[in-house]
Write a structure and sequence with these properties.
globular
Length: 131
Amino acid sequence: MPFVVADPCVKCKYTDCVAVCPVDCFYEGKNSLAINPDECIDCGACEPECPTTAIFEESELPGKWAIYKDINAVVSGAKSKGDVDAAKWPANLQGDVTTWPNITAKKPAMPGADDAAKEDNKIAALSLEGA
């Protein structure tokens, strides 16, 4: 099962996980990261590196963040928006989606990431824009 980046990453974008990924399956958005499920080899190296506990094995993804499975697949280019039930996505995610660029090296976290890491339910702040 591939891994999924979920809600805790939004507005933080720590990239410790990217630095340990052996297959470069991370993609960078304006204010979050995503994992391409077709490229992920399920090694689990990324999960313990995430300081916000935002990465989950797909089968362990909390139900409240289930939408992130499809979001990761779409923004990473594994699926098109028409391949998923995007009608259930919040209004801020109803626009066009372009594939985010691949990220292969660690970068600084977003300004304010430490404070944003304490927030809950950040999907309203998620941007579908690539970095």
